[in-house]
Specification:
mainly beta, 2 domains, eight-stranded antiparallel barrel, Porin, single chain, 175 residues, 8 strands
């Protein structure tokens, strides 16, 4: 058998194999997009540990039954200063959905990258603003509450160097 015929046979076999995998992937339903609100504390390393409250919101759009992406915006408040953090997050659910529906309990890991802006007000009433790159990484758990709502908790580490501990409440669009 010639080399050209062997190449054609292998190509046809790989095409059928890939078509089978694509059909299987298409059969797995992705969960609907979600939105969540998170609140908690950031612990900054600064001559000891400084704690600052934060409130944020995020959206997730599923690419696969376990992988989602989306933006997150968080405001952090301290004495005479505030921070604004905007990241794009990638979340990996450690257990996948079933027929597009999340499991009762879903542990997850998350990484994000974006911007961290600090605004400081000095005694002279002048305001100083600085912006730098930011990242967060960590994990947590979400638990379904009914058909569309969920609650959860998570812990992350990030830059500007901090540890983040928070609760979250969210819902998924559609059913």
């Amino acid at each position: 058998m010639s080399t050209l015929i062997r190449v054609r046979i292998v190509t046809v076999a790989l095409t059928f194999a890939m078509a089978g995998l694509a059909a299987r992937a298409a059969a797995e339903e992705r969960p609907n997009p979600t939105a969540e609100v998170a609140g908690g504390t950031l612990l900054f390393a600064d001559d000891g540990v400084v704690s600052e409250g934060f409130l944020g919101g995020a959206a997730r759009f599923y690419l696969t039954p376990k992988i989602s992406v989306g933006p997150e915006l968080a405001g952090i408040w301290g004495d005479r200063h505030s921070h604004l953090m905007l990241t794009g997050n990638l979340t990996y659910d450690l257990v996948g959905s079933v027929n597009g529906n999340p499991r009762p309990v879903t542990p997850f890991v998350v990484v994000g990258a974006g911007l961290f802006q600090t605004r400081e007000r000095f005694f002279s009433a002048e305001t100083f603003t600085s912006t730098e790159g930011a990242f967060t990484a960590g994990g947590g758990v979400r638990a379904r509450v009914g058909d569309v709502a969920f609650v959860g908790a998570e812990a992350r580490v990030g830059w500007e160097l901090h540890v983040r501990l928070n609760g979250l409440v969210g819902f998924r669009f559609g059913r």
